Amino acid sequence: MAVRSAYLSLLLSVIVVALKGGAYLLTGSVALFSDALESVINVVAAGAAIAALLVARRPPDENHPYGHQKAEYFSAVLEGALIIVAAIAIIWQSVQALQHPAELEALGIGLAVSSVATLLNWAYGQYLLRTGRALKSPALVADGHHLLSDVVTSIGVLAGVILVKLTGWQVLDPIAAILVALYILWVGYSLVQNSLVSLLDEAAPVAVQHQIKTLVATHASGALEAHDFRTRHAGAVTFIDFHLVVPGHMTVEAAHAICDQLEEAIEQEIPSSEVTIHVEPESKAKHHGIVVM
Hints:
This protein is of the alpha+beta class. It has helices spanning 2-27, 30-56, 71-99, 107-135, 138-167, 172-199, 206-219, 252-269; strands spanning 225-234, 237-246, 273-281, 290-291.
């Protein structure tokens, strides 16, 4: 499902580049050029997402016992970096256009073609966000955010070009392009920052941590307490580990049965989770964790 969505994103990005590139060639608008250039980045980003998803779906092996899910974050970092490069190129082109403004041509057709491309991006961007969140795929979510940011920039570009058509002020075209580039810079920075945080093993959201502790408190009958909870994300997988304190006289078999029960309860409520439990005797209790009900 995720890989198929990424392939469709690549196909759509190629179509959008053709449409926006055609709009730029028809009009000569530097703002439309900036819009087309960002769509070229969409093509590269979609290709990177496909590669990352293919790597991420590989099963754990001897060299990667925790799997390959983090490959998706590298795709998102690359996408953010490419967006930043595109923004810098747009600003450079716009400054040149400010110094030598040119009259725009065939604005009606150019605007119509660009509008069709924008609608396609909006529709598929919404789909990628829904699918990426459902599958917990950072690569698809990043691609969806990129397409929707492309929609915002396209609307800004279209507004700028329409103002040029209404007022005849050619300087508004590169100004619109610069404003678009500044927004793209912010989007690129946000993508890189969020992906790097995930690569550094950020903990699961507070709500998920609370859910885990509640599940342990209600499904660890026979144990005494649980402490030292740790969580991290890697793509669609949530890794969870904690210490479970049991009575000192409890047999290994009985303690193992409690762990099995806990793992089943957590994995049922938090799909794609990997649970590791360290069993300790009551002499190791810290009295600051979760008291089992």
